[in-house]
Amino acid sequence: MKILLVDPFHGAAGDMIIGSLLDLGAGEALVRRAMQSVVAEPTFGRVDRAGIWAVRVETHAPVHHRTLEEVLARLDESVAPAPALEMARRVFHRLHRAEASVHGHGAHFHEVGADDAIADIVGACTALWSLGVDGVAVLPIALGRGFAVGSHGTFPIPAPATVAVIRESAVQTMIGTEERELCTPTGAALLAEFATLSAAEIWPASITAVGYGAGKRNPEGTPNVLRTFLLENASPVPHDRVDILETNVDDVTGEVLAYTLSRLMDEGARDASALPLVMKKGRNGYLIRVICRQEMTDHLAGVMARELGTLGIRCLPSVHRLTIERTVQPVTVTIRGRTYTIDVKCGWFAGKVSSFKAEFEQARLCARELDVPLREVTGIVEDAAREIFRERGVLDE
């Protein structure tokens, strides 16, 4: 498998991401054509950043702020590959949600809706698509400190939109000491969308390529670059290690059991289940089993002890677990004359979608609102998802 590892040790911006992926081997002609189709022909060149030779990308875009609808219309004019455009749309929806959470609904995009952001996002998504990787992991993103001036006046760093994007994603951050913006909202949204793996899920692999993308500034003694790696491993399936916690109980009510399983999931368990069994002296009981990350073991064992009153918890440490790559595909459908967008959770194996399922809570709310059976909603959404995957040629049939 081929994995992209992104190392934003000095933050991230759209132009840095494109430059780094180009340096890594992304299709330059394809990226240039995609960016030119939405704004203007970009310039790619090499510059020195504190002794590191990196690719610098300039969009040559005019200053023009757009609404989400205007941005999506501009994307419709692009000649970028369809999967890259679909990813770009998702990135802009992330940015729109972030802007709305900060400024209220109906807000313009301001900096992140400018033409250079459109070019950056289309270019970055096209570059990623051209690399043909099987997964992407993002190391903690460095964030700056202090204050900056934007369309709304002076704002704290990291920018509120950047924080909002990261808050709803799985990427991690670290606060640096530099008194300037290191990660832009565009950079945060791209990396949040790219990430399909956590760094902890990457197995031992070989580095086959390294890329450096240059930022605009060239501070003395600090390499203002974004670094990326291409990793390869022969393993067909990603894997990681987890701990398994178990205990037997025969004196808890169904209500306590249901509450405990729910709380364990809320507290960070990967999975929690109860299996009926016959215990000593013929008593009916349950085997409570919890799967968790190794760093969560002590905390979750404490939850089990307090909620169940058990006096002993078995721990099966460092169990090898194979994991199927998981992504989320938003699917827009019309049901009973109304349009809904519902996420479909997808499992991937060997580059194909091996399983997919409509997100339960979103489907449930839709079914309640329309007063139709839940299975009707999930059936329509999953049929639409099946056609999407079939058209792309990624459905495992």
Automatic annotation (TrEMBL):
Domain of life assignment: Archaea
Record GO terms (molecular function): lyase activity; nickel cation binding
One Pfam short name: Ni_insertion
Keyword Lyase: yes
Keyword terms: Lyase, Nickel
Keyword Lyase assigned: yes
InterPro entries membership: Ni_insertion
NCBIfam families on file: nickel pincer cofactor biosynthesis protein LarC
Family listed: Belongs to the LarC family.
Listed name of the protein: Putative nickel insertion protein
Source species: Methanoculleus taiwanensis
Taxonomic lineage from the root: Archaea, Methanobacteriati, Methanobacteriota, Stenosarchaea group, Methanomicrobia
